[in-house]
Specification:
Blueprint: H1 2-19, H2 21-38, H3 40-43, H4 81-117, H5 119-134, H6 137-148, H7 152-178, H8 182-189, H9 194-230, H10 242-249, H11 258-285, H12 287-293
Helix pairs in contact: 2-4, 2-11, 4-5, 4-7, 4-9, 5-7, 6-7, 7-9, 8-9, 9-10, 9-11, 10-11
Length: 294
């Protein structure tokens, strides 16, 4: 029965993916970016920080003065743009995924506790959430980074510690609904311990919505990381980041537009791909779609 149910789920997912053009596009883009990040040292034609002062500001190969040795051109220090964009996928995905994991774990824990126990605990935790939401997220992050100092690990934890409230409110709302269902009440009536109810009955049922919001949060986090790196408060050189590349290319828009344009396009396509994938996952994991589209 378990194998039959698993195969039925896979078939339903495949049908939804085939019907969803945006889902297919999102999956392809996300897989491509992931593969580029994993195999960057094998794919990139040059080291990302290798400078060539005899080939500075070389345009892309299809423009006059371009070279097949640098398909997307070079920047103001002669560094290969294609290689830097490929390596930039590592930082974007690392910050996006790791910060979402940090925020998700914290938010999941507090959301489960607040929703399940309610009362005083719920009131205290939700007031803390309200306090976080009252402060503009980007302002809070800028203040913390300004005090602690920029850096890759610092950026991951700061974004994670400021975004956990989204997950806490989402999980709490799901738990408030789930704990009133008959099977949860039945488990309580036979003396099942709270932690067992949460682990066996509550937690599995909040996972679908948690996965959807986490996927979409990766996209917003990538944009946030690029914004902070553009301002000089995110990932620091010599580590390559798309936001840092945008910042370096802003002074050359009139003469060497490709230095800022290609990193901007990389951010745009990556974020769109993840958003498309998140929309498809929402359809796949929405219990209502199981009945409507099975």
């Amino acid at each position: 029965m378990a194998n039959h149910s698993f195969l039925h789920t896979l078939k339903r997912w495949a049908r939804l993916l085939i019907r969803s053009k945006t889902g297919m596009v999102g999956l392809v883009i996300t897989l491509l970016v992931t593969l580029l990040a994993i195999f960057a040292p094998l794919i990139a034609p040059y080291p990302p920080s290798e400078q060539n002062y005899t080939a500075m500001n070389v345009p892309p190969f299809w423009l006059e003065g371009g070279s097949s040795a640098h398909l997307l051109g070079t920047d103001n220090l002669g560094r290969d743009m294609l290689s830097r964009i490929i390596y930039g996928t590592q930082v974007s995905l690392l910050v996006g995924i790791c910060s979402v994991v940090v925020a998700g774990l914290i938010g999941m824990f507090f959301g489960l506790i607040a929703g399940f126990y309610g009362g005083f605990i719920d009131n205290v935790l939700m007031r803390i959430v309200d306090a976080f939401l009252a402060i503009p997220n980007i302002l809070f992050i800028l203040v913390i980074l300004g005090v602690i100092g920029p850096g890759l690990l610092t950026l991951i934890f700061v974004i994670g510690l400021t975004n956990w409230v989204i997950y806490a409110r989402l999980v709490r709302g799901d738990v408030l609904s789930i704990k009133e269902r008959e099977y949860v009440k039945a488990a309580r009536s036979i003396g099942t311990r709270d932690h067992q109810i949460i682990r066996k009955h509550i937690f599995p049922n909040v996972i679908p919505s948690f996965i959807v919001i986490s996927t979409l949060s990766v996209a917003t986090t990538i944009v946030l990381e690029a914004s902070l790196s553009y301002l000089g408060l995110g990932v620091q050189p010599p580590t390559v980041s798309w936001g840092g590349m945008l910042s370096a290319g802003r002074d050359y828009l009139a003469t060497s537009w490709w230095i800022a344009t290609f990193p901007g396009l990389a951010i745009t396509f990556t974020v769109l791909g993840i958003i498309f994938l998140g929309d498809w996952l929402r359809d796949v994991l929405d219990p209502r779609s199981q009945t409507l589209r099975a």
